[in-house]
Amino acid sequence: MGRTHLAAYQRAEADGLPCRVVAVSDRDPARLTGKADPSGNINSGARDEQLFDPSQVATFPDVDELLSSDAVQLVSVCTHTETHVDLAMRAMRAGKHVLVEKPVALTIEAVETLIREADRTGRICMPAMCMRFWPGWSWLKEQSASAAYGRIVSARFERLGAAPSWGGGFYSDFDRSGGALFDLHVHDVDFVYHLFGQASAVNTVGTLAHLTTTFACDSVPGQVVAEGGWLTSPSFPFRMRYVVEFERAVADFDIARDSPLMVHTEHESREVELSGLNGYDGEIRHAIDLVTGRADRPQAPLADALCVTRMILAERASLEAGHPVPVDA
Description:
- The chain has 10 helices and 14 strands.
- By secondary structure, the chain is of the alpha/beta class.
- The mean pLDDT is 95.
């Protein structure tokens, strides 16, 4: 994920945004050479060749050295989940703004601690919830808010892929990663929250590696369902889809299609033209806008990450109990 953020910053600079990558920190000396092996489910736009020029970008095996640099204003935290809160807090105490990867943490207490530190330091700390910025998904939020097709009456989200082969065993250790529930499915839980607010209850079936949840959302008369999972076959292609029914249209997104977003109305089915950027580009550019004063509030605030964590923990409780459970307020 670090290479994905790096590429997004570089594209933002190339497009004229006021940013420049000035430093990289990693405990692996090989990664400080500017070369990295590709990994991940989605083509993020990160290049496979030289990622950065170490003669132009400062490199630090010790993150505190990076945080002590006056040249650094904004830090992306793209590490294993158990380090997110500690690194983000250290960055804010050093006067830096922070974009912290998802999930922010696996517990309510850890997210609350980070919120308090952001409030105390007055620094920006935004969770990297990239689907809020993903072309076709940001469109969906706009249509929901405008009620151009009426209100949403049902929604189904699907996010499936091969189990991660990278990460040195981190992802297969569910005590550390939270499994697909926390690491993959979090995107759709966040988007359910983004569209409908906190669910009052959840009913989850499956396993931590592959699950399906029905969310009780008071504003939606029909079902709100999300399936997410890491599948057993390494050759299975990544799948990211939604079908959302409005009163007067159905929106159908499938990342695998040449035209990912279709809208079906009473009289026609049509393609929706989308931006050539991706959600990583969007979240990085929004973070830059926040730091430079061109935006005044995060589109993905830490308080939302707290609510999303509550919903995911309720899903885990439902899995364990075998029945629906309420989401704590």
